[in-house]
Amino acid sequence: MNRHSISQHGGNMNNFPEKTCDISRLVRHPKLVSAALEGNKTEQRRDGIYAYPDEEFELDGVVFIVTALKRQNIGDMSDVDAQAEGYASMEAYKSVILNMHKGMEWKGDAKVWVHCFERKR
């Protein structure tokens, strides 16, 4: 079953760098898909650009729209940021990321792209 689909509106109007991955790969883990569907996940950090503002994607038949794309140092994340990612705390977020990426070193100055999104109204 294809859980993700895309509709493009306007492309790269804000002069962001080129995408490094397709929007269909932005939110993939079943727990994170569920968190987004429940309204508990409104951000996804990635090391590359997966979507531009105003792009739409679908999770289990529900359409979401990317509302913002911004750069952030991973070390500047707060508990509030981790909660927007669908985790209870920054410590929980960091633990999951390090477990998913075996051998990864947590470098506070590493830059990530923050994809902000919401359900389309």
Give an overview in words.
There is one protein chain. This protein has a single domain, classed as Sulfate adenylyltransferase (Roll). 21% of the residues lie in helices and 26% in strands. The protein contains 3 helices and 5 strands; from the N terminus they run βαβββααβ. The protein has helices spanning 30-37, 79-84, 90-100, and strands at 6-7, 43-46, 56-59, 62-73, 111-119. It has a 5-stranded antiparallel beta sheet with strand order 1-3-4-5-2. The chain is globular and about 35 Å long. It comes from Mariprofundus aestuarium. This is ASCH domain-containing protein.
Tell me the number of structural domains: 1
**Structural shape:** globular
- Quickly count the helices: 3
**CATH topology category name:** Sulfate adenylyltransferase
Organism: Mariprofundus aestuarium
Protein name: ASCH domain-containing protein
Question: What's a quick, concise take on this entry?
Answer:
With 121 residues, the chain is an alpha+beta fold.
Topology summary:
Elements: E1 6-7, H1 30-37, E2 43-46, E3 56-59, E4 62-73, H2 79-84, H3 90-100, E5 111-119
Antiparallel strand pairs: 1-3, 2-5, 3-4, 4-5
Keywords, please?
121 residues; five-stranded antiparallel sheet; ASCH domain-containing protein; globular; Sulfate adenylyltransferase
